[in-house]
Amino acid sequence: MLFLVVGFNVLLALVNFYVAWKIWRLGRSLAEATKVMTSLERTIHNIFYPAPMVIIKGQVGTRVFREACARWGYQVGQVERILRLLTGLPRLWRRGLGVYRRRR
Fold first, then answer.
1. Of 41, 42, 50, 88, which alpha carbon lies 20 to 30 A from 64's?
2. Distance CA 38, CA 63 (A)
3. What's the CA gap between 73 and 80, in Å, rounded?
4. CA gap 20, 102 in Å, rounded
């Protein structure tokens, strides 16, 4: 009977040591995962920390570019009107001369 109790206690102790060893290994794995995730979080923070300022700078640049394009579009329209007028002047000049010749 004594051997049965001692044997059962030894078996129970071995099972407990095995469970403790598994828990210890799990703790080490979790600690390593924590280190990796902390490092990843720091890296991501360093990458994305300036993102809001870059986005704002891009929005300002886009707004300035759109305003410049609108001004350029207006100026191009004015130049087109001037060129149409200038290309039409020779025709008007010839017509004017033709009318002037008929009156003589």
1. 50
2. 38
3. 10
4. 119
